Amino acid sequence: MNARALLGLGLLVALGLALIWSPGEEPLGADGLSSGASIDSSPNSCAACHPGVVAEWRQSMHAQAFTDPQVRAPGQSDNFRKNECLPCHAAAPVFGHGIEAGTRVLARGPRRHDGIDCLSCHGLPEGGVAASRAGLSGACQPRFREQLGSQALCAPCHDQHGTHQEWKRSPAAAEGNTCLDCHMPRLRREGDEVGAPRSGRSHRFLGGRDREFALAGLELRATLSDDGTQLVVELENRFGAHNLPTDSRNRALDLVVTLLDERGVELPPIAGLGERHPGGQTGSARMRFRNPYRSSGKSSTQLPAGQTARLELPLDSGARRAVVELFYKLEPWIDDAEAHWSERLDVDLSR
């Protein structure tokens, strides 16, 4: 082969590597820790045997953990200039550095755009992949690892903001329920899935970005006291597995109660019932649930698992109607149209 042919071959190899590795990412091996990564470690290679699993994963926030615009926003990772965010949003295989209590997950170099990918949870340092069942065989060399089906696998990332510790104190933990029971519900694998028909778990990883799932554990109630002098508003965390909202410190739940007179005009705020903050100037009373940024110096006001928050509003003779609203926010500053989701109750106070 002459020099020109060798140069052309070298350019083709370089182009191939550029397609596999994003700019600025260091190539790591299949274990995510050493050099020599290849495209074989991509989720695309898993889809041949696990098309359903990979399709579910592609819809999940795990798949978008590195690319999601909100994660990359200046107020959050700042395009990952905050290096402490990177390990949990482009994680090297958790089994590669242990999942014991207090172990910190490490960042991988290649394919960061895949976020939390198949090997983040299944990759093994000795080669092969972790499997939830014994006796399996395949090209990926599955090896049974009991911890794969436990909450311990989730803790290295999801305890960075205390969610795993919240779970340990929850009614769910006392009953023996783990992260997988809610976030990876069981389903039936059919069709082209390897080993089908068989039982499996969803890899959609339902969470705080899924409206029905996020609000399913919250119950909002509003009642009048027997003598009609108070409006009692309650918010119950029936989810029972961790505080709400949890994990991302940017999330907030705002409970806003607005009292209206007979003309529909908002009555003045009630002294001592609710913190005012930018974008939260409305309402006769407010209650915020949030795990604030460490730098804020504020304490957590999350709603613990299994507990109920209670807001009591004294009613004067001018109050005829109450609007009770619960705003679930991915950005904590703005009410109404900019809230991610909301629920609303209308209460007649005229009796």
Please tell me about this protein's structure:
By secondary structure, the protein is an alpha+beta fold. It has 2 domains: 26-201, no CATH class; 211-348, Immunoglobulin-like. The chain contains 11 helices and 11 strands. The strands form 4 sheets. It has a 4-stranded antiparallel β-sheet, with no helix packed on it. Strands 5-6-9 form a 3-stranded antiparallel β-sheet. A hairpin with an 8-residue loop joins strand 3 and strand 4 (198-201). The chain is elongated. Mean pLDDT is 85; it is low at 1-39.
Report how far apart the termini are: 95 Å
Apparent shape: elongated
Secondary structure: helix percent:
10-25%
| Estimated radius of gyration | 25 Å
Largest sheet: 4 strands, antiparallel
Order of helices and strands: HHHHHHEEHHHHEEHEEEEEEE
In what range is the share of β-strand residues?
15-25%
What's the rounded overall pLDDT mean? 85
Give me the number of helical elements.
Answer: 11
Number of strands: 11
Quickly give the structural class.
alpha+beta
Count of spatially separate domains = 2
Low-confidence stretches: 1-39
Strand order of the largest sheet: 8-7-10-11
